[in-house]
Amino acid sequence: MISDRMAAVLRLLQPEDGSDAIADVATAGARALDVDGLAVSLVTGGDRAELMWCSDATTRRFEDVQFTLGEGPGPDAIRSGVMVWAPDLARVHPARWPVLAMEAPDLEARAVFCFPMGIGAIRVGVLTAVRRTPGPLTAQQADDAAILASALTARCLGSDDPRAGAPTAADLPWALQHAVVHQATGMLSVQLALPLPQALLRLRAHAYSSGRPITDIAQDVVERRLRLNHDGHGNGKPPTAVDKE
Amino acid sequence: MTREARVTEIFVEVADSLTDDFDLMDFLQQLSVRCMELLNVAACGILLADAHGSLHTIAASDEHTRLLELFAAQNDQGPCVECYKSGEPRTNINLTDPHTTARWPQFATRAAETGFVATNALPLRLRGRVIGAVGLFQTDPDPLGQADIILAQALADVATIAILQQRTLDTSQVERAQLQNALTSRIVLEQAKGILAERWNLSVDDAFAAFRTYARAHQLQMAQLAREITDGTFDTGAIPHAAGTTPSR
Predict the structure, then answer these.
(1) Considering only Cβ atoms within 10 Å of each terminal Cβ, which end of chain A, N or C, has fewer?
(2) Which pLDDT value is given to residue B64?
(3) Do the domain assignments include residue A166?
(4) Residue A113 forms beta bridges with which residues?
(5) Is B51 within 8 Å of A189 when comparing Cβ atoms?
(6) What pTM was computed for the model?
């Protein structure tokens, strides 16, 4: 379960005045997890990723090195979709990340914890927590970090498309517990010839513009009562539905 | 086959789960079918908790979307949630008693729509921790006996063993990663079902049936095959399937 400190951090992700609070989230999130730094890198293709934001120089340096080399806990987390921890970089077997192992002694980072951001086959990026001293995360810190990663995933999938409209992605974690939403995402990706992340955005956009819950829209898609048209240019119009019957 | 023989068979399957190419998704699905048969209940689902403490369906005795949705209604309310939070079994719950069901209005409505009149929930236990729950649904009101409940808990423990099969010194991280992997694989499977259903113009349930038959026949792990389908690296034309009922566009 989430700690009070992390709950306060997540509230920063939903600023009421619409200001960008990401810098605050990075700093407050690092404090809540008792680490020295936090970074978010987003997938740009394959298992490559680009640094989106970062709280401090130690973390930035580590992210730069591992994504330049293409090996380390971050690339592994993106590839596998599973969290990857290195609680003591000095004691990682050199065969695991051979090139990184040569650089590691020059880095200030000693403990690195990577939490993948994504929904099933949709890979968004990775949240990385860095400490300058070795040692594991506590169970509470691990839960908090995983929760922060899923909140950031929802934010990334919610804010890229202005047609999604909603200022935050508060509905998303809830909706994602429904198998039907993932099934509809897969169906739409074929209907619209879009990658899964964009298909999910279209589903959310349609739910938002029609004022109905995303699970209802997903149900209609799966039962073929609703098809979404291909509307290739994001011209601000909500996608239109064609009833097959 | 006698009940004892079937139980023995399940434990042999668990021993197989320690091999490398073990298909967790397929095993858990078959385990829920076995639970249903052995305990003579109408449906069984295996739910895992995420970091938020909400429950997600990882496998169910049948993959019909309606049943999956009933389990999904238990992500924050219902007997499985109570069982997960307390770590204690919740057995022989009468779903036709308004006093009992008043605690979980959404869940109770869904369960009634599906025709279930009684339910049971057993914890997935791991040393002092609870990682999820097994839910059992009945269409008849006969209570499960003590022997049934002991067997149900044993089957729940089997599911836990299978999910957390690998053991290393750093158990906390490995266990967390395995739980996360199971949850992620389940979502990939749903996304792949949707892709196949649309491509083949079949219902999601029929598309899944063809997918599973193919995975089993070729000894492919369902989670891996689903991932290759969602990544576009697998030619889905290779999977035999029924013709769609309406013409494709």
Answers:
(1) C
(2) 79
(3) no
(4) A85, A129
(5) no
(6) 0.76
Least confident of A80-94, A170-184, B165-179: B165-179
Determine, yes or no, domain membership for A103.
yes
Query: pLDDT-derived band of residue A174, with 50, 70 and 90 as boundaries?
Result: low
Same domain, A152 and A187: no
**Bigger pLDDT: B143 or A243?**
B143
State how far residue A143 is from chain B, nearest Cα, in angstroms. 5
Instruction: Give the domain CATH number at A77.
Output: 3.30.450.40
Question: Which residue in the set B51, B65, B75 is minimally distant from A180, CB to CB?
Answer: B65
Nearest to B87 by CA among B149, B132, B146, B118: B132
Say whether B231 and A121 touch across the interface (CB within 8 A): yes
Domains in chain B: ranges and CATH: 3-165 (3.30.450.40), 183-238 (1.10.10)
pLDDT tens digit string along B73-110?
Answer: 777 788 999 999 999 999 999 999 999 889 888 888 88
Please count the residues of chain A.
245
Residue range B124-150, pLDDT digits in tens: 988 778 999 999 999 998 999 998 999
Of A179, A188, A189, nearest to B65 by CB-CB distance is A179
Residue B19 confidence class, pLDDT cut points 50, 70, 90? low
- Residue of B75, B172, B197 lying closest to A177 (CB–CB): B75
Number of folded domains that form chain A: 2
Q: Is residue A87 part of a domain?
A: yes
Q: How many helices (H) and strands (E) does chain A have?
A: 10, 7
Amino acid type, A202: R
Give yes or no for a contact between A83 and A118, defined as CB atoms under 8 angstroms apart.
Answer: no
Residue that finishes a domain, picked among A130, A159, A188: A159
| Largest separation between any pair of C-alpha atoms in chain A | 66
Q: In sequence order, what are the residues at sequence separation of 6 or more whose Cβ sits closer than 8 angstroms to the Cβ of residue A98?
A: A71
- The B residues from 52 to 111 touching A (CB cutoff 8 Å) are 52-54, 56-57, 65, 68-69, 72, 75
Interface touch A186/B53, C-beta < 8 Å: no
Query: Which of A82, A96, A152, A185 is best to mutate for the B interface (most B CBs within 10 A)?
Result: A82
